């Protein structure tokens, strides 16, 4: 994370709570005490914060310097919001609404259904209708060529902030973006399983989106760095289908793959609801969760209500929406300050009843 990104996040946290503490920022940003103190000193020198023992408070003049200044200064225009689906991004939209709540501004939300050509049309239409800025979730994959989209966005007469996406192919530095740190979320889940003693973990991954690309990359990285067995493998869409839920019999496909590889844990991304069917199928086979199989879900919409309640990675999508909106309003209010920022919001690991140490097999711990 660059210094400008850290400072933007520090200002957002200070505005939200009125104050920030050095210890909390070290944990939140994942940097040293020295780095946090240096960032705070810079923000104090700019007049954005006032120094206090152990941290800083929002300056009385912060409206003139923080990333929230645009919202607080009474921006009352319209921003266009383009998302591919209202279901997955409803919490992002809630965050956008929260950031605009006291500003007099409004958003106009449109749905693109993962169609990049339609997204460009909707963006152009929003600008033509008078939108002062655009929040957008473009349908681009991690390794997909995006120069044409970058040229389109750069030519717009209004600022753009990307949500849950980055422009690949060298375009990252040109358009401000805010996304979940999916890779770090996956790593925390895999580290949790590793600490419990698991060494062979299967993964379900079915999405065809950039977020799914980040999750898969994070899983492979964690598998290799933490030293999981090479037999730890991904169960993909070619086995379960690419629809909104697993194809009929998908639970048995997953359980067959788990049993054939000897995996003692499952990390699942792409369809939280199908995990409920998996739990039922596991019980029908005489498998117990977590004694025979530990499970971690990616997303936390309904995981807490499973039997047993599922450990889960919970992306803070509302926070992503809030930060993206604040950065967009800042860009609208201060067009001369066009330095792009790239902020990642770390998901939380929620440990529940579906994860435990692997059961010993044949006198040995399954994870050893």
Short description:
This protein has 368 residues and is an alpha/beta fold. It has helices at 3-17, 22-29, 33-45, 69-72, 90-100, 116-128, 147-154, 182-196, 210-226, 237-240, 250-261, 274-284, 317-333, and strands at 19-21, 49-52, 55-58, 78-83, 106-111, 133-136, 160-163, 176-180, 201-205, 234-236, 265-269, 294-298, 311-314, 342-345, 348-350, 360-361, 364-365.
Could you characterize the architecture of this molecule?
- With 368 residues, the chain is an alpha/beta fold.
- The chain has 3 domains: 3-64, Winged helix-like DNA-binding domain superfamily/Winged helix DNA-binding domain (Arc Repressor Mutant, subunit A); 75-180 and 316-346, Rossmann fold; 182-315 and 350-365, Rossmann fold (3-Layer(aba) Sandwich), CATH 3.40.50.2300.
- 40% of the residues lie in helices and 19% in strands.
- The protein contains 13 helices and 17 strands.
- It has helices at residues 3-17, 22-29, 33-45, 69-72, 90-100, 116-128, 147-154, 182-196, 210-226, 237-240, 250-261, 274-284, 317-333; strands at residues 19-21, 49-52, 55-58, 78-83, 106-111, 133-136, 160-163, 176-180, 201-205, 234-236, 265-269, 294-298, 311-314, 342-345, 348-350, 360-361, 364-365.
- The strands form 4 sheets. The chain has a 6-stranded parallel sheet with strand order 5-4-6-7-8-14, sandwiched between helices. Strands 10-9-11-12-13-15 form a 6-stranded mixed sheet, sandwiched between helices. It has a 3-stranded antiparallel sheet with strand order 1-3-2.
